[in-house]
Amino acid sequence: MRICFAARFGNTRATPFSTHQGEGEIMNSQANFEKTFSKDVFQSSNVHVNFGQDFIVTTEDKIRLCMLNHASRLANRSAWIGPVSLFVTIILVLITTDFHDTFGIPKATWHAIFLICAVGTAIWSLVTGLRAWNTATSIENIVCDLKSSSQSTVPATPPDA
After folding, report:
1. CA nearest 76: which of 142, 128, 9?
2. What is the pTM of this model?
C-alpha cells in the first residue's frame, strides 16, 4: 500500500490518501497536480523577463592574467595600512617618551633614531597612500578588461524556428 499526499494551492492543507492504484494512475495524479500547481502559480504571480545579456567568451589564460592584474591592484589598495600604523606608533613614542641612556647609546641618539624612523615611515606612508589612491579596481573594471581583450563583438541572433 502506498501513501501519497495531494495538495492544491489555495487550500492550505495537504490530505493523505492511500491507493491501491497502479503506477499509471499515480503518474496521472502527479501530472494533474503539476498542471494545477503551474496554473495556480502563474495566475497569482508576476513574471519579469530580462534576457538581454552580454556574453564574454575568452580563454582561461586571459582570465588568469586579468585576475592576477586586479589582485595586485587590490593588494596595493590596502598596502598603506601597515606604514601608516607604524608611523602613528613612532609619532606617539616621540610625543610620550623621555629617552634615557640605554645599551650604551645616549638619549640624544635614541631620539635621533626615532626621528629618522618617523621621517622614513612618513615617506613610506605617503608613497603607499598615493599608490592606493591612484589604484582603482572594481568588478566593472574586471569585466571591462575582459571585454576589451575580445577581438570582436558578435550580435546575438535568434535561432531559426
Report:
1. 128
2. 0.49
